[in-house]
Amino acid sequence: MSDPLARRWRPATFLPESDNRDGSLTFVVSTLCFLACLMALTVLATNRAVNTWSDQLTSQATIIVRPRANETPDLAAARAAEALAGVPGVTEAHALERAKVEALVEPWLGDISDLKDLPIPRLVAVDLDNARPAAPSTLAAALKVRGIDGIVDDHSIWTRDIAKSASIIRWVCGGVFLMITASAGAIIAFATRAGLLARREVVEVLHLTGAENLFIARLFQIRFAQLSAIAGALGAVGAAGVGAILRLTAGGGELTHAIPILWSDLLAVAPCPLVAALVAAIAARVTAERMISEIT
Amino acid sequence: MPEADLKILAYLELPQQAVSKRKDRLASWSDICDMHSFFRTAGVGSSPLTRLSANPFATDEVLRFDDVSLSYGRHAEALRRISFHLKPGSFHFITGASGAGKSSLMKLIYMAVKPTTGRIELFGHDVSKVSARDLPFLRRRVGVVFQDFRLLDHLSAFDNAAVPLRISGRKPDSYRSDVAELLTWVGLHDRMNAMPPTLAGGEKQRLAIARAVVGRPEILLADEPTGNLDADMSERILKLFTQLNRLGTTVLIATHDLAMVARSGMPVLHLEAGRLIRRGSGVER
Questions:
Q1: Taking Cα atoms as reference points, which of B252, B243, B270 lies closest to residue B39?
Q2: Pick among B137, B163, B195 to test the A interface (most A CBs inside 10 A)
């Protein structure tokens, strides 16, 4: 080959490299990816919060001690704490002083410190071994053996409520995530249709020159997958930025108790460009193949 | 410079600059042999296409129309009961007034539309029975010069000419020199990097022709290829087609330029109001 121009030649892309719709499509897809990534971070944070709350509740039990006629409430509570401290699966058991119990019921009864005769039940706080927690029935049996009248509350009613709430939050976030993903797919499909119609002449020439439908569809597939990967990366970086700001500004404050984001959570947005490209590739491929069949 | 080289170049009447350049390029007989073999050897139109190779029982005709009619929707018939067949290596003109059905006939052959009734055989294959999957492979055996060129404006002349080869899946290294040589052959050696909007009408025409023949098709269709060209350029294009035909390509040209048809002395299919009413030698009904 002697022609230097021919030697230098590299095949150009069959589709024009840029389109005036690319900017707005990138913006819309990156916004959707940003929202999807925020959803993913929310799910992670919610899971962590729920797990923390559940752990706290399941690692403790409360005993309501009813004193017998011949003993004081404080004595009954002390006996109960002593009885429970030696039960396997219990790390610590201690009776709460009357002042602490009064503080616990204050939201419902108000200040009752001056009502000394009010029969306030005594409580025993029991810390359970996380690895092998004692069963409520074991605690109740230990009390019965020592002749103590007490009710064991293992907080299961609260744990169930929290687990139920967490499940609802997970489903809602998952649903929103799927809706956002579907919206991104629909938008890309719409953009593919518009792109195909705008490039109808290219499609027709390629088709009549002997290109297979799959070959033409793949051009649009690659094009929109690349564009969506870039948009996905932008959205992911944006969401990671918001997560980082939350983490930095909230620190150990109340916000991080409610939304406990860890630095490692930010890695969850990493697959976003890949997922965006995959969704776009599928949407563009399906749409393009259908459209090409219609056009040609 | 061998005499044969000069004869071909003179015959084509390419621009003098191209001829000079070609003289420099063609150092030996092997070069000109290559030029011949470029069109003689089976290219993307046949050898890689084992799936739709020519029917061995129908090699005496490349195209057959049997009682073919074409209607667009509820409009009147564009073509009515057309029957003819073409032998390999033949050269025909399709003539007729505007609206006579020349372009419709072309569209049927390059399978842009399907006949309403009747049967079309291309290379021995009934086109209505070829699956959508196999249709592209059949199309690669047909080169088309569209009336409006249909060049891709965002691609350079070189890229435009290379489209059929890229579509057929060939590696750029295997056809770079072929495309360059062909563009030189049609006088576009110094316009390879030019974008179609910057090309003159005649240059576009020659680029469209280069694209149509680069895949070495077995049949070449040209729809009004000289419609927008001056007499000199029309003559040059006609000679190019004649040369391609001599190298073995079946050529079918739709035109209303009766003077050019008369000068060529080639057989004619004449259409009037969608009917094939007259045929010249070499056409059988």
A1: B243
A2: B163
